[in-house]
Design a protein that fits this description.
Strand content: 15-25%
Number of helices: 10
CATH topology of the domain at 61-204: TIM Barrel
Bound molecules: 2-phosphoglycolic acid
Distance between the termini: 14 Å
Mean pLDDT: 97
CATH superfamily of the domain at 61-204: Aldolase class I
Number of strands: 8
Largest sheet: 8 strands, parallel, barrel
Low-confidence stretches: none
CATH architecture of the domain at 61-204: Alpha-Beta Barrel
Length: about 250
């Protein structure tokens, strides 16, 4: 079954207000492609409100959320606060947060549940390191991350998985089309095991060095239902061709 694709940009810790003029052009490309796919930008928290104002018809997401709704958690930002900004998505469990903030599968699951409770769509990231792939353990690692972090209440309408091999993020390297196909097929089977029939409708994005040059090839792989794009989402010049290549499929 071909699902409606989602192309989401993750600005990470990049961008000040000087970056906002990139958004109207991205919004225009998203509107042009609207019949065929969904587009979202996840800027830093500091830019979310102004991004929503600069491109009111573009879906906005956050890059993380706290697992609790409110309280004495200095520096925390809750899913309810994100939803209050007209945001639709929140990335949870990105490998950079798993690595640098020590987030566990249980943490990621709690965040995904908080996102869903706030009415957001969680983009839940999984992916193996290079060492794990070289040891032949990529499938096991990814299946384990899914088992530990996908909320049992996950639905096609409130959950998206992003498969992002850690070694492909920001490196310019990507897995072969055959490797992407194999692991996306495994993720689909695992989602059906965990969620039942809902698992057939959960979109599975590929992320890691998606560029205008490789987007068409990667987005055409079976069970690849879109892209999570880091570096190439920072400018309209790079991100728009990725939207267009995906819409052309
Ligand atoms: P990249 O990042 O496109 O810069 O490799 C992807 C991501 O980490 O989401």
């Amino acid at each position: 079954m071909a699902l409606r694709k989602l192309v989401a940009g993750n600005w990470k810790m990049n961008g000040t207000r000087a970056a906002l003029p990139e958004l109207p052009e991205i919004e225009a490309a998203a509107l042009n492609a609207q019949g065929r796919l969904d587009v979202a930008i996840c800027p830093p928290f500091t830019l979310m409100s102004e991004a929503a104002a600069a491109a009111p018809l573009l879906a906005i997401g956050a890059q993380d959320c706290h697992h609790l709704e409110s309280g004495a958690y200095t520096g925390g930002v809750s899913a309810a606060m994100i939803a209050d900004l007209r945001a639709r998505y929140v990335i949870v469990g990105h490998s950079e947060r798993r690595t640098y903030q020590g987030e566990t599968d249980a943490d990621v699951r709690a965040k995904a549940e908080a996102a869903q409770a706030a009415g957001l769509i969680a983009i839940l990231c999984v992916g193996e390191t290079e060492e794990q792939r070289d040891a032949g353990r990529a499938d096991l690692v990814v299946a384990g991350q899914l088992a530990g972090s996908v909320p049992p209440s996950g639905k096609a309408a409130n959950l998206v998985i992003a498969y992002e091999p850690v070694w492909a993020i920001g490196t310019g390297r990507t897995p072969s089309v055959a490797d992407v196909a194999a692991i996306h097929e495994l993720i689909r089977a695992k989602l059906i095991e965990l969620l039942g029939p809902e698992g057939t409708g959960v979109r599975i994005l590929y992320g890691g060095s998606v560029k205008p040059e490789n987007a068409g090839e990667l987005m055409a792989v079976p069970d690849v239902d879109g892209a999570l794009v880091g570096g190439a989402s920072l400018t309209a010049a790079q991100f728009v061709p990725i939207i267009q290549a995906t819409a052309a499929l």
